[in-house]
Amino acid sequence: MGNLRATAVDGVAGVSPDGRRVAILNGFGRQIGDGVIGLQALEVALSRGLLACSPVLFRLPGLSPMVEALHRASGIEIRELPWSAGTPAVPFAPADAFGRCIDIRDFAFDPDFLLLPMFDYFLRALGGDAAEVPAAERRNAWLLRRLRPAPMPGLRGHILVCPRAANPMRSMPDDFHAALLEALLAFGPVMTQGEVPPRLHGRVTSLEQVATLEDLCGLVAAASWVVTTDTGMVHLADAMERPCLAFFPTHEPELRVRDYPLCRAVRLDCPLPRQEFARGEEDIAIAQAAWMPPGWQAALPGLLEASALG
Question: Which is more confident, 72 or 10?
Answer without folding.
Answer: 72
